[in-house]
Amino acid sequence: PTTTGAPSNPDLCRLITRDPVTQRIIGIDNLNTNVGKEALSGVDIGLRYALPTRALGRFGLTFDGTWLRNHDLTLPTGRVLHGRGTFDLAGQNGNFSGLGGVNPAWRFNSGVTWARGPLGAGVQTRFIGSFRECGTAAGAFNGGGLCSVDPTYQRKVSAYATVDTAVSYTLASVAGATTLTLGVNNLFNAAPPSIYNGGQDNTDATTYDLVGRFVYGRITHRL
Are 112 and 126 spatial neighbours (Cβ–Cβ below 8 Å)? Predict the structure, then answer.
């Protein structure tokens, strides 16, 4: 049983009971069954290194990265979507907004900090690797094509990187320490890459910075 123009799934149709005369639905066997699964594996890397010097101050290096080995989603139909390196998993968990499908092999945050006396500064970059998105069988993008199913029509979504920087000065007093910070996020105003299957914004707002470059100031005080 199926509606006109819609694909049928025999395993799901067998759970539906219809009146033999009118074919109206009179019952559905809604069983507590695990109809799919999601498997994900990879490697997370975290590195910290401090380099104190007498003349130049104290330097710090940080690196937090992720290598994605696989991200596979098994649908109730039994079809397996291989998310690594594709945009295939967007909208496959009931959220059809075109978000949350960015699964590059590599992504990382890396930074350098410096401090000497009351002065401090730092710069950090955020990197998200490239991946593929695919079009439909007719070759049209923005239609939810799946690379796991048919990679005939595909395009490369470019890698993305932003640079954040900040400087600070700390004022010490009997009341504690007050730190004045001035920073710029997305210093080079990097635009998010275009993802034609990514919904109204043609990108993924859950992954990329849609605000662009902005300057901020902050005052913190510690007793």
Answer: no
- DSSP assignment of 22-61 equals T--EEEE--------EEEEEEEEEEEEEEEEETTTEEEEE
pLDDT over 50 (residue 179): yes
Length of the chain: 223
The pLDDT score that the predictor gives to residue 27 is: 84
List helix spans (H) across the chain.
Answer: 10-13
Question: Per the structure block, which two tokens stand in for 196?
Answer: 């034609």
At 13 the three-state DSSP class reads: helix
- pTM for the full model? 0.80
* pLDDT, tens digit (0-9, with 9 covering 90-100), for 99-120: 788 999 999 999 999 999 999 9
Beta bridge partners of 184: 165, 215
Q: Is 197 exposed, middle or buried (0-12, 13-18, 19+ CB in 10 A)?
A: buried
Q: How far apart are CA 22 and CA 12, in angstroms?
A: 20
Q: What is the DSSP letter of 8?
A: P
Q: How many Å from the N-terminal Cα to the C-terminal Cα in the chain?
A: 71
CA dist., res. 76 & res. 180, Å (int) = 54
